[in-house]
Amino acid sequence: MKYHRVPLGPIQTNCYLLVNDDKECLIVDPGGEGKKLNQLIHKQQYKPQAVVLTHAHFDHIGGVDEVASHFSIPIYVHKKEKSWLKDPAVNGSTFFGLGEVTVQSDVTLFAGEGSTTIGSFSFELYETPGHSPGSVSLYFKEAELVISGDALFEGSVGRTDLHDGNHEQLLKSIHTKLLVLPEETLVLSGHGGETTIGQEMDHNPFLNGF
């Protein structure tokens, strides 16, 4: 499996395309510029299976409707944030003055964590709340990578000053769900570049002393 990191939207949030040998792909967090993303997918001749959201903040959902409707694919989000998709006051778009960013399409809900299969893709879904209550991370063991959303970044962690954020809960999520993964695991974050679990264990200043 390979991946593409595609920064999209008003603050260049990382969207990820996870692609298997048959050119099937999962689309994770299409934060905006849906038309641009659709064109890229067509150019690469990929076959999208679903849109998966690590959480429902505005900068991760801005392109969802345009992409999902274009390819007629389902949308997955944690049940705790279903209502956020239609509420600009909660998903942050009103707070940041970016108009009303919403998702109007029907969605499929993740009820909880565990082994998950979408199309031909299988992964472990981890609940990693703190940045938001329904934040999830996607761990692909064979590919040795985890998509951490806005929980863990290179040298940093997610902000917790937005709706229902909780810093202590975020640190607990990182330590109990992410830092227990093999140190060589590649971390694909919602913003910024790639890192590894080992690098963050050794050098992330926000994780020291927890």
From TrEMBL:
<keyword id="KW-0862">Zinc</keyword>
<dbReference type="InterPro" id="IPR001279">
    <property type="entry name" value="Metallo-B-lactamas"/>
</dbReference>
<dbReference type="InterPro" id="IPR036866">
    <property type="entry name" value="RibonucZ/Hydroxyglut_hydro"/>
</dbReference>
<dbReference type="Pfam" id="PF00753">
    <property type="entry name" value="Lactamase_B"/>
</dbReference>
<protein>
    <recommendedName>
        <fullName>Metallo-beta-lactamase domain-containing protein</fullName>
    </recommendedName>
</protein>
<dbReference type="GO" id="GO:0046872">
    <property type="term" value="F:metal ion binding"/>
</dbReference>
<feature type="domain" description="Metallo-beta-lactamase">
    <location>
        <begin position="12"/>
        <end position="191"/>
    </location>
</feature>
<keyword id="KW-0479">Metal-binding</keyword>
<keyword id="KW-0378">Hydrolase</keyword>
<dbReference type="InterPro" id="IPR051453">
    <property type="entry name" value="MBL_Glyoxalase_II"/>
</dbReference>
<dbReference type="GO" id="GO:0016787">
    <property type="term" value="F:hydrolase activity"/>
</dbReference>
